Every structure is written in C-alpha cells, then in structure tokens.
Amino acid sequence: MAMAGTLAGRLSRMNSQFDIIRHPYSLSSMATAQAAHVPGNRLAKTLLLEDEGGYVAVVIPSSHHLQMSTICEMTGRKLVLAHEDEIREVFKDCDLGAIPPCAMSYGMQTYVDESLFDEPEVWFEAGDHMELVHMQRDQFMTLMSDAESGKFSHRMM
C-alpha cells in the first residue's frame, strides 16, 4: 500500500516538506521505531478514542502512555479506546494500526501531545506498516495546526 490518499492530499495542500522512510513490516509503534532506527519519542502514534459523541484522535510519542483521565478532563468527555472494526470504517485508506496523525483530515477533532513539538524532527505512519513520513518540527507543527495541543501522556519507564 502506498501513502494514504487523505494524508497525501493534506501534505500537498499544506506545502509540507517531508521525506518517506521505508522500513521492514512492523505492527506496533515501538517495533516500527526500532525497525526504522527512529527514537521512540520522535515517532508520533495516533490513537482513536470514542464516546457517544463520536470519535477523537490523540497523537502521542510512541515511547509514551496516554493518560486517559487527562485527555477526558481536557475534552470534557468520557472517552474510551475505539474498537478496531470501527477504526477501519473511519480510516478507509489506511492499514489497521497505521493511522497518520492528521485525523482532522478525516473529519475528527485531533489532539496532539505538546512533547512532540519539543523534538527537532518527527516521524509518523504514512497509512501502512512499511513507510513513515519524516519532517522537521516546524513542518509538523504546521501540518498539525488544526489540532489542539496539551500534555496528556507520560514516558514509559
């Protein structure tokens, strides 16, 4: 699978400067970081959450855990992780588990952990399990300018 069309369209509209990094097939964000030789705190992973009001996406470093209580407080919602079957319906042009961070292009509110903005460069899934998009911090911040930022994750030990 090539880059997700929705992501490619956003990158083009935002005039983003980026590289595509190929890596061996991997199914988890930490395995992807290892396979691509990328620091886990610079690899953005996207989680889909839901409640009766619909979906929201949260973007955190792959080396971090989501603090669910903090994101629920921040959004004023009682969110839980979305089921895999539902994720397929929302991100139709992506492989399951390879969701790009710009979920706002898929019509949902997106929250990005501000720790990603502290990194000089960021990598993220291109929509499959074998390619990453790599860009400098300012490019990533521009790409994610429609997202709300906050502190809602913590580094794994």
Automatic annotation (TrEMBL):
> Which CDD domains does this chain map to?
YbaK_like
Q: Where are the transmembrane segments?
A: none
One of the entry's Gene Ontology molecular-function terms is: aminoacyl-tRNA deacylase activity
Where the record annotates domain YbaK/aminoacyl-tRNA synthetase-associated, the positions are 29-141
A Pfam family found in this protein is tRNA_edit
Q: What are the UniProt keywords, alphabetically?
A: Plasmid
Q: What is this protein called?
A: YbaK/aminoacyl-tRNA synthetase-associated domain-containing protein
